[in-house]
Amino acid sequence: VTLKVHISDASTHQPIPDALIEVFTNQVSIASGTSGTDGVAFIKFQYKLGTPLIVTATKHAYVPNSAPWKPIRLPVFSSLSLGLLPERSATLMVYEDVVQIVSGFQ
């Protein structure tokens, strides 16, 4: 099976190049690839119908994201889109009566 995965910035919707995409079953990586300049990766792997998979995307300075993938029939073509949120620095302060989160984003 070949799975087309499109990775984009969840805030700007711009493609994210060089994101690592991995396909997992039973917490074991069975395939991986890297997105191109258009944010797209084509991941090829052997698939047994009915096997639940998790597709993950990671990139430095972004919050990782994942999605389940379990077709009910063997697809001729399949595409999945994942949006990654940019990491933002913040300070967490816990007082006796309040929790304060101060974002570093201006």
From TrEMBL:
<dbReference type="Pfam" id="PF10577">
    <property type="entry name" value="FAM171A1-2-B_N"/>
</dbReference>
<dbReference type="GO" id="GO:0008360">
    <property type="term" value="P:regulation of cell shape"/>
</dbReference>
<feature type="domain" description="FAM171 N-terminal">
    <location>
        <begin position="1"/>
        <end position="106"/>
    </location>
</feature>
<protein>
    <submittedName>
        <fullName>Protein FAM171A1</fullName>
    </submittedName>
</protein>
<dbReference type="InterPro" id="IPR018890">
    <property type="entry name" value="FAM171"/>
</dbReference>
<dbReference type="GO" id="GO:0043149">
    <property type="term" value="P:stress fiber assembly"/>
</dbReference>
<dbReference type="InterPro" id="IPR048530">
    <property type="entry name" value="FAM171_N"/>
</dbReference>
<dbReference type="GO" id="GO:0005886">
    <property type="term" value="C:plasma membrane"/>
</dbReference>
